[in-house]
Design brief:
Number of helices: 9
Number of strands: 37
CATH topology of the largest domain: Spore Coat Polysaccharide Biosynthesis Protein SpsA, Chain A
CATH class of the largest domain: Alpha Beta
Largest sheet: 23 strands, parallel
CATH superfamily of the largest domain: Spore Coat Polysaccharide Biosynthesis Protein SpsA, Chain A
Distance between the termini: 108 Å
Amino acid sequence: MIRSAIVLAAGHGSRMKSKRHKVLHEVCGKPMISHILDTLEEMGLSQVIVVVGQQREKVMEAVSGRADVAVQEEQLGTGDAVRAALPHVRPDAESVVVLYGDAPLIRAGTLNKLFAQREEAGAAVGILTANVEDPTGLGRVFVDESGFVSRIVEEKDATPEERQHCVVNTGMYVYDAGALRQSVEQLSPDNAQHEYYLTDTIAILRNSGQPAIPVTVDDVDEIASVNDRLQLARVEQLCRRRIVEHWMREGVTMIDPDSTYIDANVQLSADVTLLPGTILMGATSVGAFSVVGPNAQLTNVTVGERATVQYSVAVDSRIGDDTQVGPFAYLRPGADVGKRVKVGDFVEVKNSRIGDDTKVSHLTYVGDADIGANVNVGCGVITVNYDGERKHKTVVGDHSFVGSNVNLIAPVNVGEGSYIVAGTTVTQDAGDDAFVIGRVPQVTKPNYVRAWKAKKKQANSSEGGDSRGH
């Protein structure tokens, strides 16, 4: 069976009050249109067509390589949008699903069910319907004694009795391809909006003896669509709940799922534990037995096994097995932290490699550096990587010791097994096994402080007396 899809994504979405096209707004870290395309790809359809209109360049960029594109030059209704797509539909297509780019929660299983029931019944069209508690604002679907759809009544045209009806039209259809072409060609803009309505095809087909069948969605959350920011937040909430439930079923422990935020592209292993306030974004992945949180935000971060990340932020970084990050650490883009590493409180790492078994425990900045394995980096160490014009690299060899309050003035290379004394400013390269000290010589004056304070007090008193004498 040759199956095609038409995704309607032409309207900008004025109620969003945004310069961004509606279908490009993100839900759980991914544009709505990408959720739809992921679902259609999961189904293995023969063809996907996205209808674009306003701000088409951005939408076309988002779907490039994943769908064919049809252009609706004027916004003349859903029927006109499908009319724009029909020349792109494969001539041998047998079934065509029509859906919207602002309804990102629809599942592949539901659409497959819609395809299958239409095809098994030999109906001209299958209409995805939902039985909802509050049908306000939605078109009502009525069926005849044979179980075929008799009519779809929009709310503004419905009588008070009809408005009590709770079976609604979701706006998603699967058509016999020939019936779709035939009925769309007969659409007329003879209505108050002077637009071509796709829903009118149902009556056209029925009048020609080609019935439509209703197919009820099992989970009404799937049909949630986005027209404004309130609905966007609602769909985000539903999608997030779906994601956390999926990962808990896959063996992930979440202490408080309601305070755990996981983007759609995140990957988690079984036996991961997520503590309250965890936010996992982008292409983040977390290995088995690792614990993330509380209050940790990771974006595009690879976390190994048995690692711990707490009260910290990491972006575009890698954290190795058995490594501890935090509390209150910041891994900036390019941080590559090895195995069994300690990155402690108020440590910032940027564009740097930290080797296995190294400890960077307190109040340290590591930028544009290559720190070897089994290195101890003391409190208050700074890699001085920026000279006001360019960034420079610092290298510290394996098994070295960097004392507290050391400044490493890049570019600088320190060899393996070296020892940098606390308080040293390193401005020159040092080879292997080097002892590096660069302090200002200490001056100690014994039995000095009391006499110094007395002399200072006397001087202040004299200055005060002179002032009162004038």
